[in-house]
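The data are set out underneath:

___
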Amino acid sequence: MAKVPEHYKSRGISHWSPSKLNTPFWLVLAEYAYRLPKYFEARRDQRAGDPEADLRVKHYTKIGSIKMEAGSDVGEAAMQVVNGALTESEAVADMIATLQTYKPANRKDHSVTDHLLSDDGSAISKTLENAVSGLREIFTGANEVNTEERVSIELPGVDVPSIGYCDGRGGGVIVELKTRWDKASNSKSGYSNNSVPAAPIDRDVLQIAHYQKHFGGTAKLLYANRINHRIFEIPQADLNEAIEMAAATARKRQRMLERTDTVEAIMDLCEPDWSYWMLQSNYTPEFILELKQAFYGA
């Protein structure tokens, strides 16, 4: 493995990834250059027996999400079902048992957790059913589906690789599976169907483009929810364009890393949006306030 240049290493970044490149740069820095070092320091103090470390570990722990947990579980289970390792009923039972141990991060997450796990867990079982249906349609004729394969690609002019994990690959086809969960609404039930998109989402195209660049073949995006599923085959021109844009984004960020001495200086250039949804979803109000104080003294 090539040595990570100091302008990356000093900011806690060892590689890019589709998710990093789809996240605003100031938020990437808040995560890797600020939160994670403090989290790992607190964990070390905790292991050393520091009685005050527990509170710091909790403070610097990223907020979880039942939607992310359930999405990951459905994706893994769907691949196992397609490969014949589990039946759908076995997969659902395993998922429900696992998700019932999940501890909601806040009131909103608690509400969504109750909704997804209510009654017979049909929101999850139906989503799995549609995901499996889509995968079987995509991988018709494939002897086996390879899953969770680590992919590392080089972006032109970028000093570190871009790394990700391919959901599934078989029969010359690569697939990225995205689950869609119900969202709160003003309906009588309090939830409405978060419909599968009518067109591929750009950030998902970037993700599948990474894997297709490494493996070649046909790239398809599969969206599934409790109502139905939808498959999009991504044209090669769109995949190439996504990789070109990713490389341009990484090069721009790299120049900022090279030409600034401090994280604060980069944050200032990036113009952080403190109301950004990902910031609000992943971090507590107390930690967001600390970020503001750290970078701006606000």
In short: The two ends are 40 Å apart (CA to CA). Residues 236-259 form the longest helix (24 residues).
